[in-house]
Fold these 3 entries.
Entry 1:
Amino acid sequence: MEQKSMKQCKICEEWKNEGIYLLISFICSDCEKEILDTDPQDERYQYYIDRMKRSHVSSLLIQ
Amino acid sequence: MKRVWYRIKFFFLTLIIKLKGKPDEIYYIGGSEALPPPLTKEVEKEMLDRVSNGDAEAKSKLIEHNLRLVVYIAKKFENTGIHIEDLISIGSIGLIKAVNTFNPEKNIKLATYASRCIENEILMYLRRNNKRKTEISFDEPLNVDWDGNELLLSDVLGTEENIITKDLDLSVDKNLLKSALSKLSGREKQIMEMRFGLSGNKEQTQKDVAEQLGISQSYISRLEKKIIRRLKREFNKMV
């Protein structure tokens, strides 16, 4: 049952229970926290942009 | 054709969501007008209350129903050279930050606050990007030879050999000069200070010095040569 409710995070690709949805993309709580702590000036920021692009949310939104 | 492709994509994505069991209704494909509509004031308040109790589902709902803002604001920055997909990703991050940091007790609507956060996020990214454009890496290839070897910027960059000791040498020279000048008579020292702008004075021509001291220019010239010879002797004694 526990296994069934797990979702794959679009950022870290790990299977987690807790997190948020951005349309079809699940973002786990750990990645969400990291995103909140990352500024556009940080090197890591581009990584999140690329991962979010891979989740296809952006392409869906620009229709 | 493009429209048909999106409809096919929509069908499969909806299917995936249903299979994964995401509980909420979905509105989002086929144009930004089909994105989840803004929530009513009452529902938004209920969601915010649930978010404050740690309800991730309510948080997702708040994010999704404000995605129109992301699209609207991202499109305003389309002429900046950043791809619209990037802008939407950045805007989405701004929206996530907005929903997480929104304080319902403050007298501001979530949509207003989120708009500011989204725009701010994009502006900060653009600022970083503009700054980076002016930066050049030491590993920037300047040229490639016939064998494919790259000539890097770091290969041609260099510094003067004495860059470290230059200031020290200058300081030592100044002290030597001061010491040598102290060996001169008052008049000789005055002539050197006037001619070469020592002690913060402005350099003057032999003619100007001669006029001020009431002697001929040729005499100043002879005196100057004599004083310089003497200073050289003093330097040689010191070093």
Entry 2:
Amino acid sequence: MTAPAQIRSETVYDALIDGWSLVLRVLAQPCTLQELAAHEGLDAAVVEKRLVPIERAGIIRRAGDRFEAVASAIYTPRLEGMVSGLSRYVLPLVTQVVEKRGDTLALQLDLDLQPAEQEALRSGLVQDLLNDLHAITDEPAARRATYTAVIVGSSDVPPAGEAGERALETVRRCARQRSDPERASRAVLTYFDGLIGFEHVERAEAAVRRAASRLEHRVVHERKPAYTIFVAFGRRDAGQGEGR
Amino acid sequence: MKRNMIVAAAVAMTCSLFAGTAQAGGIVVDLREPSVRYHSVYSLGGDFGLAAASATGGVKAPGGSGGSNDSDSDNGGSQPVKKLANGPFDPYGPVSAYEVSQIQAGLITEDEAAAGCGGATAATGPAGLLPLLVAAGALLRRRR
């Protein structure tokens, strides 16, 4: 179990969404049914029932009395409508930032990037950050919680304004940009969820800051920026990030 | 055996694509990727419909059943077709005039309209996903 998996089927995607918290738990480490039930705070019979579609979809498998993930990480495109996708993944954390709730790290950088550099962001800097976050979820930990990262990049840069409102406007512009075939490849709209040990959260935040610092020399203050990137990392409110 | 093959195709390993090889990791969703990948052609001079050249999976007719999109597509994707003129045969079902206007406005892609995602957008109002985000912003302002 060392390679990431790429989901390409709506059936598997639906199973993933329904069993999201169980999949995250099993991705972090193989678990018995009883361990999963204890983490979820549910009856073992209920959890076992929920595991069936995830196992049938091939996302997890049984190894003795434990359930393990078939891959070290899961990558999936959005296999649902844009509005549902935004509501499910992006808006909860962005709303948290806008409302200044929770302890969320949020950064927005206005950049002077050429189109080719903008296009390379997803496979370069953003992928490096995701790899760092995956690695941090791999660290042993006594207690873990679901931490989320949202990375939004657009060449349709919103005007200066209040930070939260601007983040929301960046999401809107990015979501619109990806529907324009000419500019879609330069939009970044990526979401990460992972179980991170409490003692490793600072490292994860440092990884986010490190990714941002790699762009520091391209930040523009007085000239009109060609690109903006918004990154948020934090623990989603209870009930939103876990137990979906 | 057949099911295992399908699963293997659906959850494809991508070891060469990603450098990270940790034992544990998280889940990543790329929202910018379109719901389905196939080539489509539609003509405003013909039937309002999409003639899909090839489909690689997960394709549903607008308003069709199945998948995680049901609630969305049921709202707007299943509107009656407006036949304006003779046009190409549409193997994946009709796309409503409303969805065509969404495509023209650049709010949804043709692929998404064909997959029923236009219904999701149409259901939120004439400006597609904009009202959702505007409403989210307004809600936040009111809460302050």
Entry 3:
Amino acid sequence: MKYILLMNTMQAGTQGLDWSEQALGDHIAYMIALNKDLSAAGQLVDAQGLTFPDQAKIVRAGADGRPITDGVFPETKEFLAGYWLIEVERPEQAYEIAARASAAPGPDGEPLRMPIEVRPLMDGPSAEA
Amino acid sequence: MNANPNVEHLLRTLAPRVLGTTARRFRDFGLAEDATQEALIAAAIQWPRDGVPASPLAWLVRAAHRRMIDILRTQEARSRREAVVAVAADAAAPEVDDEQRARNEDILGLLFMCIHPALSMSSAIALTLRAVGGLTTAEIASVFLVPESTMAQRISRAKATIRASGVPFTPLEPSRVPPLDAVLNVLYLIFNEGYTASTGSQLQRPDLTQEAIRIARLLRDALPASPDVSGLLALMLLTDARRNARTGPRGELVPLDEQDRSRWDRGRIEEGAALIELSLQRGRPGFYAVLAAIAAVHDQAPSTEATDWPQICALYDVLERIAPSPTVKLNRAVAIAMVRGPEHGLAILDALSDDRRLASHHRLPAVRAHFLAMRGDYPQAAEAFAHAATLTRSTPERDYLLLKAARLRGGST
């Protein structure tokens, strides 16, 4: 079963822009170790970090089908910071991995306990008997 | 392929030559690749069981050519194929000459074909890795982070494009081949893809840097007199030499000035430096040769402070004449700041800040931050590093820039 783990972070605070060197270093090492373990366990399909949201654009098709682009509006409170695509046997395994990601250390060294959205991916149609 | 590493290695080494010979004689790249694959599979099954034949290359070429004729015969209904069979009939029992010339023609033919002018850059890279590098479609798919079926489709469309372009496979006909520059550019992109990914990416990727070096060596064997080919190979070796020192114990990026130089690969450095010396003696240095010369100066210095910065300045002056770009200007500013002080570097950056190509590039604030730190202006430097962190599109680089900002806010460099 494939799951996507979406890491949503608040606009301010968890970006690391105002963390101490020690806190940042620990956080980075925690995430690198997590990805290494997932890869070694054969559970990692893909993991990507996203650029900061000020580089994001909202795009809609205009009446003529051409793109109309907007910046991301400042009132957006949360943004997608990155995701993991994993393949596991049971949903509980996906939740455990999500909990480990959620517990990444924050600015004070304590677990951030950030919300991780766990979503099963749609599968192909079931095999015909 | 099975678990016999010797046979596997041998097949991998010979595969491009078999494909090159077959494609050259039958003038159909797509079919030649099918025939070569089947010959390799036959060898992978038979050799571990029956022993490796006395002349493995001849065995493979014969098997591929036999298979090719089978394929062509089954398609005899098509008149175009018939004509090809007629042309190739006398190639049915090929003689394999082990001369260097034949080897060179095969490799060059393959490379120039994969980097066909009708192909997009990403298709050319995929085809080169497949045909010359011998990577599987699954391995190439993982390099580009796309599903295997997508990559299989991309490769087969690339082959169809080559076929449809109507350019028959005549590798060494000068008017038909892409310029050598295009080939070198593709190899350089393959190398950089591997080198950048090797630092921070969480995913296991096939070792593209080693692959690019291997192909560059083949190209240099074929074109030993080309200073550009030697320059590119030297650049790859001198850059790859620092690979082990580029990642810290926790997987973080370590920049050149903070690397443990005792971990640099001396063998690579010596080989690269000898190549670049030879290449520079041959006259007008090209883009890759100058970059390699700069890498050689860094690699031969015991520390950042003891680096021959005036020499690096002079090399960037040359580079700015032959291949001007904002990146070259930025790197030249760093060298000048190292020689004459941060004020001079900052003055160059001020002049560059109007360049629209650099407007949203993280290197401009990162270099500014570096200069500000050099003159002891820590709060401003921290701010500039943090700004650079919001602009970069590389995770290891962002981590590094954030750490740098945090360190300066904490009062140390």
